[in-house]
Amino acid sequence: MMSSLEFIVTFLLQLTVILIAAQIFGYLARFIGQPKVVGEMIAGVVLGPSLFGLFWPEWQQQIFPADTMPVLYFGAQLGVGLYMFLVGLEFNTSLFKQQARSAIAVSLAGMLVPFTVAALLCLWLLDRPGLFAADISYGNAALFLGAAIAITAFPMLARIIYERGLSGTSLGALALAAGAIDDAAAWTVMAVVLGSFGGGTLLAVKAILGGALYASLMFTKVTGWLQPLADGIEAKGEMSWGQFAFLLVLFAVSAYSMEWVGLHAVFGGFILGIAMPRGAIVEHLRKRLEKITIFVLLPMFFTYSGLKTQLTILADWDVMSVALVILAASVFAKGIACWAAARLTGSDNRTAMAVGALMNARGLMELIIINIALKFGVIEPALFSIMVLMAIVTTLMATPLFELVYGRHMKTKKPQVTPVEACSGT
């Protein structure tokens, strides 16, 4: 056991290494035209057993000893919970009123085809040891894999659209609306999987009904209850520390409520973010939360994920073959389905290809969903590592593909970047 002083010194060293690695790889990612989050994701993997632990195992063990893992885990979970809260604050429900027919068609295609492909893949994957939990049902395996393939990196998608000046265009409205619907559906399916996996019927009912009732309460009642607070902040032009503390307590209660019903804390943060009244209250929350969340806590999440990722297992051809099949199936199922749906609902070919490219990025959202699955024992470390690789590759592909099929052909416009996207690049 480490002494208190040793623990503090080791954790501070650990945090320093994490932050430096995140900034270096984030800068390199932006240097080659990629979102900063891609570099941070790669930095997390580099600090894990796939590279740092492979070549310098003693140093890695000294910097990331087992004693400090609970604190790193707490920081990682707090970071991803607050990040999903910020994503919820960015969630624009008015997008559903624009391009409604096309957005629904694209999102349905972007879910139905991946879930169909996942169902077919699971007929093969369930017979392979070390991927899914031994006692998982075919239905739960297919639902999880379908959600993991169907999910979209909504914040990254929004960043590309705002930076390219496409927020007021049909492409921007279509992609954002379809991405939002896709992610909402993927998280709903994941909630069903978590609620029904390994807990028995009563726990599954508690999780599913509890989550649905909680979301209904937040959207129908809590928004109205918070409106006077939002109006007061709007009138004064500032948020007091007492008001900020109250909202943090509300965030903690929301996260705990989702854990209590048997889901995951990130659902609570995301639902609260959507339910918050819009206006000055959102801007003040962003200013106080985004920097610590994006620059400090999220790199802890990437590192914690990286410490559980063992890409060395891909040296085994059996595992690599699974990884290549999942990657190819994910890219084609999502991209072609969204392209075809956009074409069938009236979009020109270039716009439809751009939608397919944007919807194919999975980024941080994929890492969140597979971390939850690993925590609940739905998947094993081998499949976790495969899905980390898939998340990184599909995220790396998104920007170059978008530029190839659409970006280089559009007129240059003045970038419009929202605060969260400007800081995070996710």
Would you kindly provide a brief summary of this structure?
By secondary structure, the chain is mainly α.
List keywords for this structure.
Na+/solute_symporter_sf; transmembrane; 18 helices; transport; mainly alpha; Kef-type K+ transport system membrane component KefB; Cation/H_exchanger_TM; disordered C terminus; 426 residues
Head-to-tail CA distance between termini: 38 Å
Principal-axes geometry comes out as globular
H/E element order: HHHHHHHHHHHHHHHHHH
Number of strands: 0
Could you give a short account of the major beta sheet? none
What oligomerization state is this entry in? single chain
Radius of gyration: 21 Å
Q: Number of DSSP helices? A: 18
Low-confidence stretches: 412-425
How helical, in percent, are the residues? over 70%
InterPro entries: Cation/H_exchanger_TM (IPR006153), CPA2_transporter (IPR050794), Na+/solute_symporter_sf (IPR038770)
Keywords: Antiport, Ion transport, Membrane, Transmembrane, Transmembrane helix, Transport
Membrane topology: Multi-pass membrane protein
Domain Cation/H+ exchanger transmembrane: 22-400
